[in-house]
Amino acid sequence: MTEGRLQQQALDILKGADILFSQEHRQDIALVKNHSIALVFLPAADIPRFVGEGRVDLGITGKDQICEYEALKPPTKDTSLKEVIDLQYGYCKLQVQVPKDSPFKDVKDLIEHNISTSFPGLTRSYFGALEAQLLDPSGDCSVVPQLKTKIKYLSGSVEASCKLGVADGIVDLVAAQQYSLCIYNVPRSLLAKATKITPGKRAPTIMPLDDPDWVAVSAMVEMKKISDGLADCGVEDVFDMNPNNSRYTTRPGNDY
User: Fold this and answer.
1) Which of 143, 189, 213, 240, by CA, is between 20 and 30 Å from 4?
2) Integer Cα distance of 85 and 71 in angstroms
3) Could you give the CA distance from residue 207 to residue 136 in angstroms, rounded to a whole number?
4) CA 5 to centroid of chain Cα atoms
């Protein structure tokens, strides 16, 4: 069981599966009351190792941690991991980043420079393949040469490393776009203006109200855009619901 900011979603999933337990303060192990299960609470980065080495039977952690574990310790017959199910929350991307005023405009410009990251295994693999490609564009990019790019491991505060002069760039997680179900009432005369702000994934759902001059609208929108501009459209009774337990389809050309 992962510790950290995404732990609550994991706990909600266990609760929905009728797994009942109580965790004593500062205790890392909890016994389940209604099943023969023990829960072990660990940092997300440690879970792949415990599962891979057979110390625990099942783990909940991020794909980033699994990929990093396998980059540092290539899987063998005895240590390989198998994904059972994608729980579909906590979406993020691992990206190479530089400050806005950085002279580096392309990722290749960072070769032979300092990179800070909490994912040294993945970062070495990425820049190693990049360096190999530059040395021999027609060769095997999976062959990592003696790395010239200097990878610096940081357990936290990765973004601050550029400002403090520790690194020229970073490799860090960026949260993916987060969406919420927005429901509101709006006059029919202002409906077109309001739905330009909340177009939804495919289209907004529009329902009539008892007042013939008003309608109710529901749409999936970016969380940060829920209030942007809606107040100026005559919208009332705005309700924002975070659909943690929903599943929705990504279509080609759509960044949802």
Assistant:
1) 240
2) 21
3) 60
4) 11
